[in-house]
Amino acid sequence: MKIIKKDKNPKNKEVIEERQSSQVKSENRVSSLKLSKNVDENFEKFQAFLKESTDAVFRKFKLGRSEIDCALVYIDGLIDKSIIHESILKPMMFEIFEMEMPEESQIQPDKAYNFVLDHAISVADIKETDNLDEAILFVMSGEAALMVDGFDKIIIVSARGWATRGITDPETESVIRGAKEGFTETLRTNTALLRRKCKDPNMVIRTIRLGRRSKTDVAYVYIKGITNPGLLEELEERLNQIDIDMIIDSGHLEQLIQDHIWSPMPQIQATERPDKAIANLMEGRIIILVDNSPFALLIPTTFAQFFQSPEDYNERWFVSTFIRVLRWISSFLAVFTPALYIAVVTYHPGLIPTRLALSIAATRAGVPFPSIIEAFLMETTIELLRESGARLPSAIGQTIGIVGGIIIGDAAVRAGLTSPIMVIVVALTAIASFVIPTYSAAVGLRTMRFPLMVLASFLGLYGVMIGFIVINIHLVSIKSFGMNYMTPQAPSVFQDMKDFIIRVPARKMQKRPIQSYPIDMIRMDMD
After folding, report:
1. 198 part of a folded domain
2. Among 136, 157, 178, which residue terminates a domain?
3. Is 107 within 8 Å of 95 (Cβ atoms)?
4. For residue 226, which phi and psi values (nearest 5 degrees)?
5. Which domain range does residue 229 map to?
6. Which ranges of 415-508 would DSSP assign to H, the alpha helix?
7. What share of the chain is helix, strand, coil (3-state, %, to 5)?
8. Tell me: the pLDDT tens digits for 299-332?
């Protein structure tokens, strides 16, 4: 898969080459600034890059009573000042007096650096670097850079401490029975949530940086011994092909690594729930976490996964199966109900009972528009209400959605712009779309309504059938990281049918789904 496409336009090619050349020169200029043993020179190099930033803090001080110069650089707002004061400055400037040392090793210039590492800094996580570019990147990531005169290395002290949002109930995937915690915007908090739920040392978390300028931390998580190495290699290859200025969110990354960019349906599932992420890990999938995003990406993904919810596995199998059947019926209603209404009213009134046909005809007697215009007006109105309710504060948004729908529907009927049956059809469609557990899948299905309505207005039920066939051909033809999107339907996989529409009892689900080709197929040994 190629993420970056080459432009055949020679002018664009020259612009791109010039931009890349200037970027290489800039990177070489930073890399060529080698660290000096003189702390003042290193300090000036930091200032050359960060002096125009008002949140950059530069601090010079002496190591104890000696004349050894030290310097500290950090970004205000990204660090915990208590660590700077209590674990770096205070020990190095004052508490160093109270340390008992042999006379011959008392803070001599040639031993100062090792002494600071071994005795002065009371922070668990420290690193060393001799590269200025790397040191600046650490500083911009929330670390503190400590320099000691006479040494061409920089001590990177872990002092991150920016304000973060607490762990709360995920709003987009609420459940009645299940965990009430969701991912946050902090990457390490999210990895800790996964570690709490899975203490297997074979769970591997690898972190890379994407974005030439943003340097966004991206972590991908898998379980060694379950995840197929081929899937891991495919993901790493796609991530390595990404060359972009900035990764904004996990949704942005999703669009860069998905298989089919023109499909309305998502090929990668996003979730806010750690329990759902861990459950997918146990089936051989890979989780992608992006710093500053509360949504994790699950790969590979099938169409059936969008109709599954974590509480399906917390309830008895019969209840879960009944709810899943409702979801599949709701998805059909959300996509095809308006088109079927248009087709029947316009071309096939003989397919419905006579009394119902007469009743519909009577209610539409005063409507000045054909059914397709009537349906488009009402569907567009309901989408406007849905979006306005989602963008407003929760209390106001719910009020706008409910009251607005009632008032506008009643006013449209009284004004003769639409019929009561059309209001019922639109309301049924909207309610059915809310039943789908995953927002991205629900949006994709909602967009399919409008082309189907156009086909129904021209060809009637034949148009609806053509649309149904085209949708199925499209869903069968797409893949998610090499896995068929419609598995276990097409191709049919009998073993994975145990967790498809019908969810069999938990004791019968002893093997992992084979759709992601896990190495270890047995997840339960219980009769």
Report:
1. yes
2. 157
3. no
4. -120, -50
5. 187-301
6. 420-435, 439-459, 461-477
7. 50, 10, 35
8. 999 999 999 998 899 889 999 999 999 999 999 9
